[in-house]
Amino acid sequence: MRTCLLDTTLREGELYRLLKLSRKIAIARSLLEVGIRRIELTLAYPPRTSPEDLKMLISLLNDYDAESVIHCRAYREDVESASKYDVWGIAVYIALSKIHARYKFGEEDRGELTRRLIDAIELSKESGFKYIRATIEDASRIYLEEGLDELVKTINVLRDAGATIISLPDTSGLMTPPIVRDFIKDLKRCVSAQISAHFHNDYGYASANTVEAILAGVDEAHVSILGIGDRNGIADLYEVVAPLIDIHRVELGVKRESLKDLYSTFSKLTGIRIPARHPLSDEARTIRAGVHQSMTIKAPEGYIPKGKLHHDFTSILYEPTPFISKRLIEEILGECNLSHEKIKELTERIGSEASRMSGRLPITRLQHILSEYLSPTARKKLEKFFGLERAYVLLKSGPSLSIDSFIEEVSRWSEVEHIEEVYGCFDLILTVKTNPGIEEFVEKLNKLFGNGIEKISILTLR
To answer: H or E element: which one contains 390?
Structure first.
């Protein structure tokens, strides 16, 4: 049986950042289109959150015949509220570890808390949910402090009460991949209940732990886009799916080739940047060491995995650092038949200027240094290898401009890397990457949005 991925960007992820309904709908649709079929949402708690928004999201998921899951507390009122929605499944949770029992609930043992969880399961069963997930919050601590037997006993009780799947979260990020491997394998030998895995990222192991859990045969695994969630988040959708497909040849029903676009769109819609260390950032395809540059001109898979070159990046980028490769300059200026000494001279000049400018030269400066030798072909190569220039485009909107419609439109533009709503003299800041041509981008904005934009200012990044 293939592990089912449950995406919780719109539940766990909202502990990191609350999103407008229009953005949630766009994100849900994007997840569905890449093949995610099970999506978790938070129960509405009016007046703090909106039942109408939740109904619209559930309606969208139902239109795609997806499996929508409402996440709520193991309280009767929460289950009764969840049962009013046209939703496929419910997830009820309570913490059963000793530290949570004592300091969260004032209980010295888990007996009464387990009873509360059982009551919520039984009510969920009466309400007709097809999927009933019982979540033992902080389960990893029970395993690490008390051993497997205590968890097995609780899992069997919850299964007998009617839970269709049991979730065992690593709530405080206490596990590492070898521990996870043994944990899941031992559980699968001891219980017949379906098991769900949810790992937090306190030590940076959430994605690796989730990969291990899937390889060990867990029935459901939780992920979110960029791993967003409480504190520093949970397992990252890409970091779980991509290595499982590319390296382990494990299919999860996700369109591998669409993950790059999913993350790009998500980042633009939410204003949450893709971190530099993430596998889908531009840094992941930027080569800085001279010996690496020399190699990747001929065989890029020597440093970047083939799966990433095939699915994630259409090209490699190079950085003109103090360690820039002579072979790279030779490749750009190949038509000129320059001597070895001249190539060396130009390379050293670029390296020296890069050092003087804190390690990075803009493409305009490179063009100036190499201007005497730049044929049309060489210029194209220069732009291909070094061409991405970044700029901040600051926009003041006019009364006729809908900010939501504007963001929805420009989030589809390949040259727009990031969108941030701000307060003050401007309403929006766009991070734009061009190859090169920021003026053309501004013309495109003015042509499409016309009088809707009152003011545009540009800050070019060095």
So the answer is: strand 389-397
CA gap 115, 120 in Å, rounded: 9
Residues 402 and 379 reside in one and the same domain: no
The answer to whether residues 385 and 439 touch, using CB atoms and an 8 Å cutoff, is: no
297 shares a domain with 206: no
Q: According to the model, what pLDDT value does residue 462 have? A: 63
* 8 A C-beta contact, residue 156 and residue 145: no
The residue segments making up the domain with residue 111 are 4-270
Do 163 and 176 belong together in one domain? yes
Which pLDDT does position 435 carry in this prediction? 67
Residue at which a domain ends, from 386, 409, 429:
386
CA distance 214 to 239: 13
Partners of 430 in beta bridges? 393, 419
Profile the chain (462 residues) by mean pLDDT over runs of 10 residues: 93 94 95 98 94 97 98 97 98 96 90 96 98 97 95 97 98 98 96 98 98 98 98 97 97 96 94 94 93 94 95 90 93 90 94 85 85 89 80 92 91 89 93 79 89 90 68
CATH number at residue 396: 3.30.70.920
Q: Distance between CA atoms of 351 and 433, rounded to whole angstroms?
A: 23
Number of domains present in the structure of the chain:
3
Which class for 55: exposed (0-12), middle (13-18), buried (19 or more C-beta within 10 A)?
middle
Same domain membership, residue 84 and residue 181:
yes
Residue pair 429/391 in contact (Cβ under 8 Å)? The answer is no
DSSP tag of 3: P
Same domain, 296 and 418: no
Whether residue 340 sits in one domain with residue 402: no
155 and 58 in a common domain: yes
Task: State yes or no: cis peptide before 47, omega within 30 of 0.
Answer: yes
Q: Are residues 356 and 409 in the same domain?
A: no
Residue 275: inside a domain, yes or no?
no
Strands 428-434 and 389-397: antiparallel
pLDDT of residue 362: 79
Here the CATH number for the domain that contains residue 216 is 3.20.20.70
Domain boundary among 243, 270, 297: 270
What pLDDT sits at residue 1?
A: 65
* DSSP string computed for 19-60: --HHHHHHHHHHHHHTT--EEEEEPP-TTTS-HHHHHHHHHH
Q: Is the pTM of this model over 0.70?
A: yes
CA dihedral (406, 411, 415, 420) in degrees, to 10, reads 70
At residue 249, the 3 state secondary structure works out as coil
Question: What are the CA-CA distances from residue 426 to residues 141, 157, 278, 323, 421 (Å)?
Answer: 48, 57, 29, 39, 9
